[in-house]
Design brief:
single chain, 14% strand, two-stranded antiparallel ribbon, 9 helices, alpha+beta, 2 domains, 43% helix, binds zinc ion, 180 residues, elongated, three-stranded antiparallel beta sheet
Length: 180
């Protein structure tokens, strides 16, 4: 953990007052801990419009906390998409493979792995993310873990008629279609 501070801003929807504060890495990393719910310090309104969050790059320290705590989210929506940054690959694999990581977090990490492949694979990814060599590397890591994914419930469990990491079922379909 670095001592770097991450800037957060917000604007009051009622009086327009703009506020800025600085958070440490572990507070800024998670949606629940960076939530800024105190009322406007000028007019007391709790209605805010706009604002920004500087987010720290993923670190082992953040994952150590997140992996065993299902109350914390990097993002409550599309967390797998947030985690799927190519430079995160080694960290994602480390925590995916660790039996001490909570099953929901392992499923999110598995999903992020598929997204990394999808984004980098030349026939499925956006042009600026395409990287055939990296896609091949990720595919290798996915294929090595077939039995782990079954263990995590990939083929059995369903939610809303889709496999458990349903957010990326289109990614999994593409992966199976191209059989890398
Ligand atoms: Zn205000």
């Amino acid at each position: 953990m670095t001592s770097q501070k991450y800037e957060q801003t917000r604007s009051c929807a009622k009086c327009g007052y703009e506020e800025t504060r600085f958070l440490d890495e572990l507070t800024a990393a998670f949606e629940e801990t960076r939530a800024w719910s105190e009322p406007c310090s000028k007019c007391g309104s709790t209605d805010f419009s706009g604002g920004s969050n500087a987010l720290p790059p993923l670190s082992s320290k953040q994952l150590e906390i997140w992996a065993i705590n299902d109350e914390l989210h990097f993002s409550q929506q599309d967390e797998d998409l947030i985690l799927a940054t190519p430079s995160n690959l080694e960290l994602l694999l480390e925590f995916l493979d660790s039996p001490s990581t909570h099953i929901w977090q392992r499923r999110t990490l598995a999903s992020a792995l598929y997204i990394l492949w999808y984004d980098a694979y030349p026939q499925t990814g956006k042009s600026y993310l395409q990287n055939a060599e990296f896609a091949e590397k990720v595919a290798l890591e996915i294929n090595k873990r077939t039995s782990l994914f079954v263990e995590l419930g990939a083929s059995k469990s369903e939610e809303f008629g889709e496999p458990l990491w349903y957010l990326s079922s289109y990614v999994r379909e593409e992966f199976e279609k191209h059989k890398p």
